[in-house]
């Protein structure tokens, strides 16, 4: 497949303009409710945690409050552990895994660490089950100060005071069949480039920081998640989504260079999870559980090695 003529919007070889973006936006449909699925759960957490508004997004008639959940007993002498989910709104277990962690295990870290959890960075995308925001921008390529993506700019501002003191940042994602059927073809069409198909890995994997790799940390997370769901094998080229393996189930990206979420801070320990919810070997609950296992193992490793 060497062109994107099959994609229903745009002209092959020509980047989208305003008309194509408007046509794309007109095709997006709301499938679920941020208020019902996310805000209602956050409300249940208010007795045990502080809920911090860090901005809001207004798209047309729709208004989305942006909320972070943080430790009530925040202390300056404790390490800071950051969890983000829902950077890509269609990656469901990132959102629900972050909330499940807070409900089931957040109290385990009281007095040991300061937790800051942002369960749904992209609420509009969550409701549309989409990767982009309404401007056809991918938040996870736009985590910069004054970003054109409002979701990204708000999170960067929230984390700015923690940039040099955060110990851990774990960002929760999924890789789905729709990456190949919809999102990568749409990206190619948007940018006027040919679509080059790839293989969707069957299983969980992690993305390390190519500039500051932490292989022992990544291995600890993989070992914990392997007890919950299967780890993605390499393809015939020895790669996962076009990247060579650093370790079994671990690849690496230049996260700061690409303006990815896990690179917002200078946390010593940082990783991006990738769950595969379309596998016949995994249920939705398993996917949530895998995210929780990743969070807990990442936090436990970081705390155990904070002085190492």
Automatic annotation (TrEMBL):
Keywords: Hydrolase, Metal-binding, Zinc
Start and end residues of each Peptidase M14 domain: 30-308
InterPro entries reported for this sequence: AstE_AspA_cat (IPR055438), Peptidase_M14 (IPR000834)
UniProt GO BP: proteolysis
Molecular functions (GO terms): hydrolase activity, acting on ester bonds; metallocarboxypeptidase activity; zinc ion binding
Keyword Amino-acid biosynthesis appears in the UniProt entry: no
CDD domains reported for this sequence: M14_REP34-like
Cofactor: Zn(2+)
Keyword field contains Metal-binding: yes
Pfam family, one: AstE_AspA_cat
Domain of life: Bacteria
Family stated for the protein in its record: Belongs to the peptidase M14 family.
The protein's name: Peptidase
Organism: Dyella japonica A8
